[in-house]
What does this fold into?
Amino acid sequence: MLAAAVLIAGLSACSGKNDTGVDISGQWHLVETGDLIGGQGLDIDVYASFTSGTFVLYQKVGTGLGRYWYYEGTYTVSGDNVMTGRYSDGTRLGGTRGLGYSVAVSGNSLTLTALSSGEVSVYERAEIPADVIDEAVPPVRSGDVPALPVL
It folds into this structure.
């Protein structure tokens, strides 16, 4: 399931840094999805920004979808390096089960592993291009677009 790739369940807004020092704050670009997307034959481009317990996601999925969709929400990373959260419309990050993601940061790489499925998504630090931000379709409900959000 496309939505089961990267984010999470219930939460309270706090910083992206937890007691063990895992800090996901910053801007990221999806570079690896394993079989999650590739196995479905879809083209995908995703940028994410995490700041002080809030996230913004810009996502373009599928052949012929010429626009980025814009999502926002809140997240938290617990002391055991598990990220959970909700989109602004209340939808859990990580699909209907929304169990969360195991989070690992190594240098400029962020790896999110879905606790429900084991699917892995890898992001690299990268500035979100201004044209992606400027041309993205304004906030939408997470279920209102042709492809569910990856996070």
In short: Residues 1-21 have pLDDT under 50 and may be disordered. The chain has one domain: 26-135. The radius of gyration is 14 Å.
